[in-house]
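Quick check before the chapter quiz. The format below is the same one you will see on the exam, so make sure you can read both the input and the output lines.
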Amino acid sequence: MISIFRDRTLLGLNLAVVFMMVGVGMVMPQLPQRIIDFDGNGRSVGYLASAFAFSYLLLQVPSGSLADRIGFKPLLVFGYLLCSLTGLVFYYATGSYMVFFARLLQGAGEAPIWALAPALLSVRFPFAKGKVMGIYSAVLHIGLALGPIMGVILAKVAGSDAVFLVYAAGCLAGAIAIYLLVDNSAKQNYQLTGTFDIPAVFQLIKSWRTLLSLLGITLYGASYGIFHTNIPVFLSAEKNFASLHMGIFFSLFYGAISFSQVIAGPLSDKFGRNIFMIAGLFTVAGGFVTMAAYSFPLILPVLTITAFGMGVFYLASMAYLHEIVPDSLKGTISGAYYLFWGSGYFFGPLLITQAVELRGFQAAMTVYSLLVLLVAVGMILVLGLKRAVRK
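Here is the expected output.
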């Protein structure tokens, strides 16, 4: 354990991600309102998630392939610098089109950060990957949870636009930490367990148990996007949330996802993944279908429990997928996660936005909850509630 905590690469990755994620936590509560201020309505807010997901998805596989040749470090530095530039574009934006362009840049910048940092930790610490990736994930979510409240305080002191400059500075500090501390080994310098292979993904989804898990991950991605876009608009327009309330909402959201993984990890190790995947989806469905009935402050616990269910499903489903595939497909299943999660994050908020326009928020959330329930019931029928056994 001492050698892990003395590792400069782990230190650099953790410092960089906390610098950036505090800024992300500050920025995300501001963006929906910024679009409303520019456009006069929230009809296009769903595109905030989709613009990010488009470039994020587009660059996932190229990032991994390039890292094989030139190493992790240059791509991680580039990602943090691009995110720093994103903060400046947010700050100088004069219309919603510039905000959406900045989200495209942000997706391109975060693609190597989200994909390569955990991959580097996984291959650098093959016998302690769970521990170091858990540390990294905890640091990441601590930054996200702290950011919204710190952003509200900063906005009151220096104005709401100041959060974008702090985000830009944090990402720049992250790039410096990566440059000074992180080792530049490429993936090929380590013993790997497979790479991402699109044809292999199609082979995997022929199995109902794999397909249902990936469909659940798609809905998890959609839920994440809905929490970033549609729900803040609803809270602002329908529940009269002020900036402080919005900061509390985002802090609770990120904190619940982080805490849920700490709880679900050891419990799913003991009792199996299936029951936690199913319980997580039922919690998400229940939260989405009932949230509109509550106002501040009661709506906050409902949303927090919903986010907790998302985190439980995420951790259990990822562990489940890695348990049921052979070692030769570990890379493929990780890539499939990003593909399906990103697809949900891209399309989910857009579809919800259209549904809200046609039938209202409550009807949209009801239909979405039924989709989540359908996948949960499918898991009960196909997977059961017992521990999975790899074939």
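If your answer matched, good. The chain has 16 helices and no strands.
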